[in-house]
Structures
1.
Amino acid sequence: MKPSRQPPLSATDTIARIRVLLGQLEKDDVLRAAIEFALGEANLDPPSSDGNLLSALHLALDALRESNRRFSDMLDNVEMISLMLSPTGTITFCNDYLLQLTGWTRDDVLGKNWFEMFIPPELSLAKAHSTLLAGATESRHHTNEILTRTGERRTIQWNNSLLRSAAGEVIGTASIGADVTERVQRELDLQRFRLVMDATADAI
């Protein structure tokens, strides 16, 4: 006897199924957030007609591709670092600007530990990452040096935020960074100049 065929899912049930899947994607917040956005773009809620899970996913994926293209274009057209880390410091996302600034390729970077690969060994920033994950507001804005592939140091001013799962649990961090190396160097040069002028004035 052939198994009875399951009736097609209503659009409401389809959305419920997709949202259950979203709850299982807590470790991949980028994908989860993209599907959430795609659901809104596909206008599946509230539903206007019945449909099965496959057709709903096709609609969501089409919207996902377009929203991902717009999101990627936005990040790549600004000269700022965009970075996402897991709770353990694993790099889950970076934009082209970080790669251009540091000389690495995306394959070199994704899946690696940010603190081991980019942070000078004398800086202890893993603790700051942990305090950010714990919700400490003082860790949301800071400035530190990073290492390029050749060992050059660049000074980055960061704005950090938390990534959360559909259940509200913290699953990582998202950061936007501005390269302020030249500005910091100008400020140091000005301080040295003032020290020299002060010393000269004292000697007269």
Note: Residues 53-76 form the longest helix (24 residues).
2.
Amino acid sequence: MPGKAIAHYKWAVESNPSSGLEAINALFYLLGSFVLLLGIVLYIRRKPGRTRLNTEELNAPNNEPVKIDEPEEIPPTLKVEAAPKLNEAAPAKSPATRPTWWSALSKTRLKFEWGSSRSEINEIKSALEEACLVSDLGLKNTEELISRVTWDAIASEPAISRIPKAKQQAAVTLSAWLASAESLPSWPTLNQPENGPKVIWFVGVNGVGKTTSIAKLASELKSRGHSVLLAAGDTFRAAAGEQLEIWAQRLGIECVRGAPGADSSSVLFDAIKSAEAKKIDFVLCDSAGRLHNQSQLMEALGKNKRVMQKALSEAPHETLLVLDAHTGQNMLSQAKQFNESVKLTGLILTKLDGSARGGAVVAVAKELGLPILRLGLGESPEDFSRFEKEPFVRALLGTSET
């Protein structure tokens, strides 16, 4: 490239010596070519991270290893821990890092945080109404809650106290609606059968977390010193039985599993009979996920229940509906349909952490009057918490204990 530039410069000068402009252009072309070539050379020689071999290394015999500069050690802050294998339990979280009521309901609580800019009664009333609706408390429940707040009395309070007073009165109403939802600390060991195992059956639609909830409850029961057997009653989904079996291996308990596509009723029957013979305390039964609005699938649950009763007359002792807290008001329609089909005894709410629809929990509890036996506040077994109405309401509205 520089040779061409020099030739072009000579030609321009010799062919037309009087043309200074063409000579200057040729000169600039020459200088630009040299600068470009110099830049390429410097870039290649100084490129960071490039492995360079000296002349001696290149001339080394083939039977001798070539020495290559060792890469710099990765700083500790950049090192990534290896993920646990599938058949290994995830490391337990420390108490400081486990989800709490306050952190789990943070997205819902944002709806009830209005700051101190609103002091007029109509503004506070509208803000409370909107927060209840967007958190999926439901229209009817929202109207009832708003009507129970004594707005005239709050209007006589100093402006800075009006929002806290309105929230406190709303908390009283919500706590009353959740009275029947609070579960006893002794569950599920309460009312243990004298003869045979206690059979707990988990039902729900696809993807709500039934299998994981079973594993968490099994872990809890084992930590209390009880023997547990898992029944892989979901024979429809190919991976469901394998998933439950992996959990059983992690926990060191037995799992009864049928072939994919097998009759789920026979799996449940065999599991109950096996537990009875081995004098196992609890049988936790999975079921195939099904849409609550498809009658033929709901009828299959009825068959499962009848077969379990043939294995053990009082089985199942408890039928728990697992609900995904992210689905909001849709939880209510699911609960009504399942309750009509198999007569529910309690609820388990999963994936509450990060849900912005915490108000729907209140709506379900108020409508059905069923206990919420466990809430999923995270992914680990330790994040499977007993429902307590007071901490729940405080975390929902952002109010203090007093």
Note: The radius of gyration is 35 Å.
3.
Amino acid sequence: MDFQVRLDRERARWLRSRPATVAAEALRTREAQRLGGVEALALREGERAPGFALEDGQGRRIELLQLIERGPAVLLFDRGLWCPFCALTLTAFAAASGAFDALRVPLVAIVPAGSTPPGQTAPEGLCLLQDPACHITRAYGLAVELAPEQRDRYHQRHGLPAALVSEGAATSLSLPASFIVLPGGWVWRAALHVEDGAREGPQPLLGALRGWFARSAAGAP
């Protein structure tokens, strides 16, 4: 089934299962993000991607310099497997990991540390990196701060893991985004997804990468 069809079905199912107050809350959150300038802070095409060294679920240390050593890499930022839209997206990318491997393009997803519910693991084929306190997410301009009352609502209504909920503290979540980063660290393609349930599947990124490789082979800038 097409990724967008699955995403639309999940969005419809999610809305049916939530009271009208949740939709109003989501609208307020998006408006707060807009007024807070979150979109303006996000990393853009042509800018340099901040470096990082993060661990995956097995404790292996992965660095950006390592990922882009021989060519472009794809970075996905998402909220974690507790979010149904994020889980669907990450599963779709895991299923398409063979296509990225065929292009020799590393594919990693960066999520807040502690955002994987107990008993769940990263979808097979996807490298899921843990971002403690959302430091790297913030460096990429994608961190959304939840006040304590928002944090509690996300925990009670949306399944935000208890590991991300600490009494009296704010919680940082990531705006979903995808980047293609070239050797040297330059961002060649950036996509930010602000609307609830809005995500990008693997096919647009694979198409962009194939186009980049074709232009590079032809000597085009």
Note: The CA atoms of residues 61 and 157 lie 34 Å apart.
